[in-house]
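Exam review. A common question shows you a sequence with its structure tokens and asks you to describe the fold in words. Practice with the pair below. Do the first one on your own.
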Amino acid sequence: CSSDLPGALGALLTATILLRAGAVAAGVAVQFDISDLAGGRPNALAIGLVGAAQAVTEMVFAPFLARYADRFGRSRFLVAGPVVMLGALLLFLGMGPAALGGTRLIEGIGAAAFTPVALAFIAASTSRDPSGRAQASGAFEAATLGGYAAGFLLGPFAWHALDRGAFFVIAGVYLAAGLVCLRYIPRVPPLPVSSLRSVFRTALGPGPM
């Protein structure tokens, strides 16, 4: 319903802020954890690899998960993305330092389930309103950047106040993002999708020029 659209978009932007804040805060806290485990003299390569791991899996999995979101229902993926990231943090807390890299990789998969679906939701909701689409897309970018800024504030403060308890705070942020999507994003029925072969042919084949 068009009257519900502003509320749904507002919820989506709120969830985006929470998810990005959680992801950045987790990255900061993980790097503090690596530093503490190394006695204050961490390996720079390890810091870089763990820090980048989330972005790598998000980039790799985003095209595939976007397709499956259309096939199985976009709203499910908007809820599942933060929940997967929450589960990754809890897995890390249960398994200890050895799970650091794996945690960040799984978090990236959760982000990949959320971000392209959020953009698709905006595009579909504003398909008959080019001006509204531009505004909503700009608001999405602003929400993403706002989430980054919030994460860089939350991560250090939570770590220095709670040590590894900071991960429970970050898990709560992910949980809040999932609950916002579950409560306020309308259900989207499954849509027809192209085969993976067609997707790869389009992506890797000659362009319109």
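Now try the second one, then compare your answer with the model answer below.
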Amino acid sequence: LSSSSAASDVYKRQVEHKSNIIKQYFKIGWLKYVIISTLLFSIGMATTMGFKNPFQESLGFSISMIGFFWALSRVGISLLLLVNGWFKKNLTFRQLLLIQGITYSLIFLGIGLSPNKWIIAFLIILATMVRWGFGSVTSHFYLEFVQDSKYKVSLLSINSFLGNIVIGGLGLVVGWIVLQSGFQVAFVYAGLALSLTTVLALIILKK
């Protein structure tokens, strides 16, 4: 009986812990920011993670040239990371997400609609820079939201978990679109999805 009672107490504490974490999501007003940032990052990631290099190869770029593009994107990311402090000082999280959303939308639509392979390569470099170049300031905004919570690790872990799930699901969708209609059509759809996410951000995120 004592063993059963102890197990029941443990189960109750686990349920209460999960319930408290969910309450924290809503209490600190973080959930809507998680939804927008996760969608923006996941749509971009799912569209490029497994398809960027094959797409560039299909355009006629060599492996060495694709490697050169990759190196350029890393230089750009490093430069953006250097000015993350300025973005944190001068922008709110809402403004940062809106800038990312608008930039992402234009880049992905440009990739999908451009007839020039060099413009496409340049835009893919920009997309990579935008995706990874704001990592530090985004993490800082996340930490500001959860700094007073005793569930910091759980809240951040759930955020990462949701992101991976969304990326996996969207990756399957993008793969299907590529097989059915080609790489550029997939980027157009991604650009439209990013545009809708940006509009959603305007509506649900407070100024």
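Model answer, second protein: The mean pLDDT is 83. The radius of gyration is 20 Å. Full marks require stating both points clearly.
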